[in-house]
């Protein structure tokens, strides 16, 4: 059974940085394209970023790419989300997701995650609150 466990969330002030981490267990993380999503209260889940199975490609939501970045360490089975210059509107529950579709080894590794908002596995989420 594949499990994704996020960590690193918390309460921060506007302008701060925060790094979220997701640990994959039950199967090698290199089997998956990985992504981060977020959901703010009363809003739909939103795609944040995705990374190819080998880390050779990343894709980030246009509105966030100047402040957020995604990385992975397959040796540690982890995927991180670096968030800089945080704003109150970044307040949300952040979810890690894993996709094992046929897209993951292609240049369209982000397609199922970003465009179709689909994944094979989801984490339980970690809360990020940005407030002064």
Verbal overview:
The chain is mainly β and 132 residues long. Helix content is 4%, strand content 45%. Strands 2, 4, 5, 6, 9, 10 and 11 form a 7-stranded mixed β-sheet that branches. The chain has a 4-stranded antiparallel β-sheet with strand order 1-3-8-7, with no helix packed on it. It is globular, with a radius of gyration of 14 Å. The model has no long low-confidence stretch (mean pLDDT 96).
Derived structural class: mainly beta
Strand/helix succession: EEEEEEEEEHEE
Report the major sheet.
7 strands, mixed
Straight-line N-to-C gap:
40 Å
User: Average pLDDT, to the nearest integer?
Assistant: 96
Q: Any idea what the shape is?
A: globular
Percent helix among the residues? under 10%
Note the total helix count: 1
Uncertain residue ranges: none
Q: Tell me which oligomeric state these chains represent.
A: single chain
Beta-strand residue fraction = 35-45%
> What is the number of strand segments?
11
Our Rg estimate from Cα atoms comes to: 14 Å
Keywords:
132 residues, mainly beta, seven-stranded mixed sheet, four-stranded antiparallel sheet, 1 helix, 11 strands, 4% helix, globular
